[in-house]
Specification:
This protein is an alpha+beta fold. Helices cover 30% and strands 27% of the residues. It contains 13 helices and 24 strands. It has helices at residues 10-20, 51-61, 71-75, 78-84, 98-101, 103-113, 126-136, 159-168, 231-249, 282-289, 294-303, 342-346, 383-394, and strands spanning 2-7, 27-32, 42-43, 65-68, 89-90, 120-123, 140-144, 153-156, 172-175, 182-190, 194-196, 201-202, 205-207, 211-214, 219-222, 255-265, 268-275, 318-325, 339-340, 351-355, 358-360, 366-368, 372-380, 398-399. A five-stranded parallel beta sheet has the order 3-2-1-4-5, sandwiched between helices. A five-stranded antiparallel beta sheet has the order 12-15-18-23-20. Strand 13 and strand 14 form a beta hairpin. It is globular, with a radius of gyration of 20 Å. The model has no long low-confidence stretch (mean pLDDT 95).
Length: 411
């Protein structure tokens, strides 16, 4: 099978790594990829949000499967163009990707499907936003209706900060605060049926103790030893399948991975948000544990025929990933600083490094090229040992001004 992965971040490196392990994959390509994917795949420099360029590349490569990584690719209609040209694509088309691209649309889908979620108001004026903030009270939850790379949500007890974020967006969703721990669950769908993957937990705040601004995610781990029994089955029956059914009823079948961000509240499971792609960095740990070959699983979604009774097999043990971020992230990440120590990190038993925001400079040195620069993954027989391995590997890496959380997966 010839596979093309679209994107350049840590999630795409994790996807490429999992596909590289699949013996059915005879040729692996990434566009544009990064220095990490270049070690296991052929990188192609193009804009992955350009439907024409991507379709032409898929044709030259005679791709049997195209895997869309980031949400911007989907919202740009790349999946639509690929399917029109006859290429199987794992990832929803533009209409279905609205479930992430518009928080208001997601709320509409959930209401029609009877999916449990937070009460919310959609606001397009400052007056409406202020009324909603006063109605719900603190903690205030304010979400940019559009795409914001995982950083469009403000949760704060500061009324002024909530108002500022709301008025900085053209359209916002303001909703009730959901108590309880958050869980991420991915489900693979062929537009009719859905199959769950392992639940994981990520850490959105920039600093230890869940302090600081929201980020795209500073770390994640799986499995969740504290998760209640039957959680996955409950979410599949009350959240995932009803959503897939509602999308199909609207004749916008959902093909790809549906990410459900969940809160385990005192009143039961509630959906915090949907994403139309693998969460980052949760994908890094979930895909690490996957024993079932990935390519045929994604292809079954892309061409139809996913067995709803199928359950993937998982490697025993645990995985923890810690994000190394550049100076100034998330507000003003500094690029261009040299990264060293990756070879030493990779020598730590049970650890490896995924590239998230890196590139090679003119002298061939690895440098930071984004806010979240590296994902350091540790594995082990349980979460504490996997966590210790990740941090041991991370201690070998040097990047001027960088920072990371020290409390990822601290159970």
């Amino acid at each position: 099978m010839r596979v093309l992965v679209l994107g350049s971040g840590g999630r795409e490196h994790a996807l490429a790594r999992a596909l590289h392990r699949d013996p059915a994959v005879t040729a692996l390509h990434c566009a544009p990829g990064n220095p990490g994917t270049a070690e296991i795949a052929d990188n192609h420099q193009l804009d992955p949000t350009d439907p024409v360029a991507v379709t032409e590349l898929a044709g030259r490569l005679r791709a049997d499967l195209v895997v869309a990584g980031p949400e911007a690719v989907l919202v740009a209609g790349v999946g639509d163009a690929l399917r029109k040209a006859g290429f199987p694509c794992f990832g929803p088309d533009r209409a279905a990707a609205r479930i992430e691209a518009s928080k208001a649309f997601a709320k509409e889908i959930m209401a029609k499907a009877g999916v449990p979620t937070a009460d919310a108001r959609i606001c397009e004026t400052a007056a409406a936003a202020d009324e909603a903030l006063d109605s719900f009270g603190p903690p205030y939850v304010v979400k940019d209706d559009g795409l914001a790379a995982g950083k469009g949500v403000v949760v704060t007890g500061d009324r002024a900060a909530a108002h500022e974020h709301a008025t900085s967006c053209e359209r916002v969703v303001i909703e009730e605060f959901l108590d309880g721990p958050e869980v991420s669950l991915f489900a693979l769908s062929d537009g009719q049926h859905a199959v769950p993957l392992l639940p994981a937990q990520d850490f959105k705040r920039a600093y230890d103790g869940n302090d600081g601004p929201n980020t795209g995610g500073m770390g994640a781990y799986t499995p969740l030893p504290w998760a209640p029994p039957g959680l996955v089955d409950e979410v599949m029956s009350t959240v995932i399948q009803p959503t897939v059914d509602e999308m199909r009823r609207r004749e916008i079948p959902y093909v790809g991975v549906l990410y459900a961000g969940l809160a385990l509240t005192s009143k039961g499971v509630r959906v915090v948000e949907f994403n139309a792609r693998f969460g980052d960095p949760e994908a890094q740990v979930v895909l690490d544990r996957l024993a079932t070959p990935l390519a045929s699983l994604l292809q079954a979604c892309a061409i139809g025929g996913l067995d709803p009774q199928f359950r993937p097999e998982w490697r025993p043990g645990a995985a923890v990933t810690v994000v190394l971020a550049s100076e100034g992230y998330p507000s003003a990440p500094v690029k261009g600083d040299v990264i060293t120590g990756l070879d030493e990190a990779a020598k730590v038993d049970g650890a490896y490094v995924l590239h998230a925001g890196t590139k090679l400079d003119a002298d061939g040195r690895l440098i930071a090229n984004g806010g979240r620069v590296l994902n350091v993954v540790g594995t082990g027989p349980d979460v504490p040992s996997a966590r210790a391995t990740a941090y041991e590997a991370l201690s070998n890496i040097t990047l001027r001004g960088s920072h990371y959380r020290t409390d990822i997966a601290a159970l």
